[in-house]
């Protein structure tokens, strides 16, 4: 059975648990798990959107790390829905999993559900984005990613001109990227963000938003999208509007972004790399230590980033 099949089977188990009487009314949930020398046996991984290759790569990293310790992984797709993630956490509590790795769709809104999981004895580690109440977290240095991306954008447009910023959902990674971008642009007083609008982190919504923004501001020189799907949606919007010569940058260095960078005439010119596979593996390592009663050297780990452009694309290894 392949990885995706295993993930889908595992996903079905949680859904079954949410509707089965035995899960809701069976053995009482206990908070007495873990301790010195304890080994993790069951892992819950919750991601924002499993159809996004970024989160599939994250799942791959967790699965590979879990196999090394003989643990099982149950992956749940949050579908960008806070309510769904709340229900998934409650199902995990009933299943009495050992550790929960959570990629929240809403960093603050998931807090009460995280608290319920901890009260049930589950050790919780946030991955890629912060989650209120999580005991530890591993994320990309998103502020640096936004800073690098917008510094590159600013330099490519000659340090002057109007640009657009397509924002995203209320999660820490997105907010940090925007903060980093705006910090970078403080060094370029002749650059102005003439429009900023929130999307849903996806390509289709970004296409619609960017089309409207470009209609109102056809003379901009560049666009910063908070992730690659957003930036690629903006690229398509510019193409469809017949606008050329823009510099468009994103964050992720996803397979789709790599393919776009391989097109010499694309206006999508650069992306700040993420490593979801490594983030997932590190998050599980941190959760293991917490479950075994060990102290973490760091409660928050930042994975470094770098800009991927056409110039260094050949050296980029990509997601695993």
TrEMBL record:
Matching SUPFAM superfamilies: Periplasmic binding protein-like I
Family statement: Belongs to the bacterial solute-binding protein 2 family.
Lineage summary: Bacteria, Bacillati, Actinomycetota, Actinomycetes, Pseudonocardiales
Keyword terms, alphabetized: Signal
Keyword NADP tagged: no
Family matches, as InterPro entries: Peripla_BP_I (IPR028082), SBP_2_dom (IPR025997)
One Pfam family named in its UniProt record: Peripla_BP_4
Signal peptide range in chain numbering: 1-22
Descriptive protein name: ABC transporter substrate-binding protein
Subcellular location(s) per record: Cell envelope
Organism from which the protein derives: Pseudonocardia zijingensis
